Fold this sequence. Notes:
The chain is an alpha+beta fold.
Amino acid sequence: MTGLESLEQHRAPTGAGSIHLLGEPGAVFHLARGRILGVESFGAPGVDTLLLRTGRTAELLGPAGLQAVCLSALHDAAFATAAGRVTATRWEPRDPDDLPWPCAYAEVEPYEVVTEARRRLAALAGLRAPVSPDGDRVVSTLTPWEAARHPVAGQRELLRHADGATTARDLAFILGRGLYQVTVELSRLREQGLVVIASTTTRARLYTSLEPRRPDQHAALPPAPPPTTAGQLPRRRPPRPA
């Protein structure tokens, strides 16, 4: 089952707890009162990673800023899940006070999460040269000197780190940026001929074979986030055999 199909079919329990979606990339949806409070996935940077890589703190951001980061991470993890595949689900009842701390700053209706994930998949599929979020390893066609002088700061960082071994997911973790935004920017760079796909893993077929429902070719895409400092890539799990 595709990740999007699983999200569409799964009904949110009324009690507090976590739904574990097993598969690629896998995710945990934290819920209470029938609403989604947070999503964690190996496929997208979480709140802690986004804050750590960019040097921001909860005190510096304030409640409103922190809520924006938590909501962004929630939708990004849901996008990664929707673009992948789910093989099994498991419900884990939990005390609301035991849920991860970002859950205190976000609360979204399940249908809103599914609708946004579907919109992002459709928008990505409508691009001329879409890149798989975690299947296509991309490499820059520019020399290091040329990449360092690219006029767009956000794209410059991507070009500097696109070495043929990194996927959009990898670059999102390295730079502390959202997976969807990084995937869109890489797709635009690919259309311009500034990056090419160096190799494709078996996971790419899961993403590119997904047919979004009623794709909107004119769906609006978010602007590129500001440049951030690079960090080290967290350890990846080995891919499953094809």
